[in-house]
Design goal:
EC 1.1.1.49; binds 6-O-phosphono-beta-D-glucopyranose; oxidoreductase; glucose metabolism; Dihydrodipicolinate Reductase, domain 2; about 20% strand
Length: about 475
């Protein structure tokens, strides 16, 4: 019998599957890479047949796929997608799932947990009833756990069933083209690598601003909030790439890069002046969102001032902010260099991660003409503007699914990174709440609470947009 590779998604009727995973599989299908993940089993509680599910999924794929939608390409993808109804919290249901896998001739597995972390443990318990499951790979969505203690327990549970090197903890920011590019821009260019330190840089601002609110994810988000949803994972990953020492290779990520990232996360300084180091906010109208508590104090915005206790970054602030329902969508790393003289403006390097991918550099020139004045030259390289580039650049999930099949673990978060980030995020949140600092309200469409501007003003800086 021909035993097949089977890619199973738990949480197949959720937002992540519709918006990210199925469109990624479609793109892989168009670029002839979909076969690498094998047949796709979608697990959900709703009462659909495979045929009904494929019809529903079609609209999402059409809307969210990176590559142009055609019926022919979708039908090719859909032919390999099967819906299986089950309650994945019911251990008894896994015996039947095992029979279904038998019918599908499935033996080698990749399981994708596209569900809230509180369900991970019961899925693992259930999978003990599925033959060969423990030899498979598992992809876990972030956040990994809900705090350090839960993350540790979860890790133990996962490692007691799956082989540690078969556990892939996804952080989709690591699959973004410009996040991977940070390392190359830094280390392959002596004009930057030679001045990448506190001696030459005034501050670094990392922003992940979103226009959308919590939309259909209120139930998950209200238990999470911006610190756990974005800072603990995506933003700390970026911070650690921006601040790490040079790993051996200029471009390829690997063990060495991972070690350097850990060193950064372990050197995060825990501030004494918490009120000047962290601002949490909530957009007006958040409490009226579906599945959000009416007295919720969950933050939909977080801004931080952090320092690293190491020689390279001594006394230089990293400003980090993220939020929902803001004026526009923008993810960027802005490096503000020290000025050459008091009346001269800073050089600014902006690594633009999304929606536009590119690099902006601002530097000083003589103003053309007779006057003896200095002006700013602004060079803006747009990497994503050309259609060819868009066609060639895989979207993050597409890239990471392929990396999982190939066993390229360095594209994923490693356990000790997660542990170091949780340690910091748990403690700083605790200090904020112990001091009873407010969760500031802000207007949808704004740049977040004024308190976040004031935090920078107090430090003699301001957010650059
Ligand atoms: C997810 C968060 O990990 O990242 C979401 O859970 C957030 O709340 C999303 O909206 C942002 O991802 P992207 O790729 O749109 O920047």
């Amino acid at each position: 019998m021909n035993k097949k590779l089977t890619f199973t998604i738990f949480g197949g009727t959720g937002d992540l599957t519709f918006r990210k995973l199925l469109p990624a599989l479609y793109n892989m299908s168009v670029t002839s890479k979909r076969e690498s993940v094998g047949q796709v089993i979608i697990i959900g509680r709703r009462d659909y047949t495979s045929e009904q599910y494929r019809v529903i999924a079609r609209d999402w794929v059409e809307k969210f796929a990176r590559l142009p939608y055609t019926e022919k390409d979708y039908d090719r993808l859909a032919a390999g997608v099967f819906y299986y109804k089950m309650d994945f919290t019911d251990e008894k249901a896994y015996t039947q799932l095992n029979e279904f896998y038998e019918e599908m001739e499935a033996e080698s597995h990749i399981f994708y947990f596209a569900v809230a972390p509180r369900f991970f443990s019961s899925i693992v318990t259930g999978l003990a009833h599925v033959e060969h499951a423990c030899h498979g790979k598992v992809v876990l969505e972030k956040p990994f756990g809900e705090n350090l203690t839960a993350a540790k327990e979860l890790n133990e549970k996962m490692e007691s069933f799956f082989r540690p090197d078969n556990i892939y903890r996804i952080d989709h920011y690591l699959g973004k083209e410009m996040v991977r590019n940070i390392q190359t821009i830094r280390f392959a260019n002596p004009i930057f690598s030679g001045v990448w330190d506190a001696e030459h840089i005034d501050c670094i601002q990392i922003s992940a601003l979103e226009e959308v609110g919590v939309e259909t994810r209120g139930g998950y988000y209200d238990h999470s909030g911006a610190m756990k949803d974005m800072v603990q994972n995506h933003l700390f990953q970026i911070l650690s790439i921006v601040a790490m020492e040079q790993p051996g290779d200029l471009m390829l990520a690997g063990e060495e890069m991972h070690r350097e990232q850990i060193r950064v996360l372990s050197s995060l300084n825990m501030p004494e002046d918490i009120e000047d180091s962290l601002v949490l906010g909530q957009y007006r109208g958040y409490r009226e969102e579906k599945a959000v508590a009416e007295d919720s104090l969950t933050e939909s915005y977080a801004a931080m001032k952090v320092f690293l206790d190491n020689d390279r970054w001594k006394d230089m602030p990293f400003y980090i902010r993220t939020g929902k329902k803001l004026g526009h969508r923008e993810m960027q790393v802005l490096v503000v260099f020290k000025t050459a003289a008091p009346h001269v403006q800073s050089n600014i390097l902006n690594i633009k991660i999304q929606p536009t991918e590119g690099v902006y550099l601002q530097f000083n020139i003589k103003k053309p003409g007779e006057e003896d004045e200095i002006a700013q030259a602004k060079m803006d390289f747009c990497q994503s503007c050309s259609f060819i580039n868009q066609m060639n650049t895989p979207e993050a999930y597409e890239r990471l699914l392929g990396a999982c099949v190939r066993g390229e673990r360095f594209w994923f978060s490693q356990w000790d990174q997660i542990e170091a980030s949780w340690k910091y995020v748990d403690e700083i949140r605790k200090r904020y709440h112990d001091k009873k600092l407010p969760v500031y309200a802000y207007e949808p469409g704004s740049y977040g609470p004024h308190a976040a501007d004031k935090m920078l003003e107090k430090a003699g800086d301001h957010w650059l947009d």
